[in-house]
């Protein structure tokens, strides 16, 4: 079994992380052209720092990434860099968003990170299927305000 080991001048390393982060207030704005541009911006920023993206998916209200971060950087450094620089790039390209969402705070303050050990393939599959799972969950949680059988307004918690 071959390990995915990278190297620096005097170091061999395998540091993979599953990272999830979202726009401020979980706004559902990542779709169409904005989604593609955010993906390109994040890819470019990762390339500048030597970060390898193994798998990534941009859902409507959050982003999943499986990345290899060199040990010379901490995860918090990289997240500050990615969220800070991409926010500036997004507001530079889409100037109207700065009036809509204000103050150049595109991303929320927190993020989720988990180290990836031997379950890398399972996490890759999870990220690939995340968009479909979100869509399915949205369909299951749709509340009906009109009864489809009687065409009367629904009262209470049907």
If you had to describe this structure to a student in words, what would you say it looks like?
The relative contact order is 0.17. This protein has 4 helices and 6 strands. It is globular, with a radius of gyration of 19 Å. The chain is of the alpha+beta class.
What is the gist of this entry?
By secondary structure, the chain is an alpha+beta fold. The protein is built from four helices and six strands.
Q: CA-to-CA gap between the ends?
A: 53 Å
User: Mind summarizing the main beta sheet?
Assistant: 4 strands, antiparallel
Put simply, the count of helices is 4
Briefly note the structural class of the backbone: alpha+beta
Report the average pLDDT across residues: 80
Strand order of the largest sheet: 4-5-3-6
Q: Kindly state the number of beta strands.
A: 6
- What is the radius of gyration computed over CA atoms, rounded to a whole number of angstroms? 19 Å
Stretches where pLDDT is under 50 for at least 5 consecutive residues are none
Share of residues in strands: 15-25%
Layout of secondary structure:
Elements: E1 6-7, E2 12-13, E3 16-21, H1 32-49, E4 52-58, E5 63-68, H2 75-93, H3 95-101, E6 112-115, H4 120-140
Antiparallel strand pairs: 1-2, 3-5, 3-6, 4-5
Helix pairs in contact: 1-2, 2-3
For the structure shown, list the relevant keywords.
alpha+beta; two-stranded antiparallel sheet; four-stranded antiparallel beta sheet; 158 residues; 41% helix; 4 helices; globular
């Amino acid at each position: 079994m071959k390990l995915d080991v990278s190297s620096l001048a005097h170091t061999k390393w395998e540091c993979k992380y599953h990272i999830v982060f979202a726009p401020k207030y979980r706004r559902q704005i990542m779709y169409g052209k904005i989604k593609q541009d955010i993906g390109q911006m994040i890819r470019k920023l990762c390339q500048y720092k030597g970060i390898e993206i193994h798998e990534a998916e941009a859902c409507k209200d959050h982003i999943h990434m499986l990345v290899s971060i060199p040990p010379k950087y901490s995860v918090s450094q990289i997240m500050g860099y990615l969220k800070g620089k991409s926010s500036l790039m997004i507001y530079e390209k889409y100037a109207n968003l700065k009036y809509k969402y204000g103050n150049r705070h595109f991303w929320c303050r927190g993020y989720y990170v988990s180290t990836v050990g031997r379950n890398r393939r399972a996490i890759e599959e999870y990220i690939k299927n995340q968009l479909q799972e979100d869509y399915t969950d949205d369909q299951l949680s749709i509340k009906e305000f009109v009864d489809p059988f009687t065409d009367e307004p629904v009262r209470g918690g049907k």
